[in-house]
Write a structure and sequence with these properties.
alpha+beta, Alpha-Beta Plaits, four-stranded antiparallel beta sheet, 4 strands
Length: about 110
Amino acid sequence: MQILSRKDSKLLGRTELEVLFPEKAGSLSRKEALKEVAEAMKASEGQVALVRLSSESGTRSLTGRFHVYGSENGRKRLSHEHLSVRLLTKEEKEALKAAKKKAETAAPPAAKK
């Protein structure tokens, strides 16, 4: 793993990283990439959000964009929800979807004025 760029965003309380994973295309999962970045930044996995993980055409390298927050609460508050849903297994995603649907049917719709 090689850190290409690092930018500290004090206003948002996070560090934005651009990371290169050489020769890892097709063999590195999102969770494994997140774990490697968390270890390199000496942070817990709950503090790291994977924004994008993409491969370059013609190479076997992966480029990832990560946000490392000062606390897990900061990540939950500032990071988009869909970024954490991407890391869930298929069963966990289905359970989350069922729970949301159950909550929507239990709550009556708000009246519009």
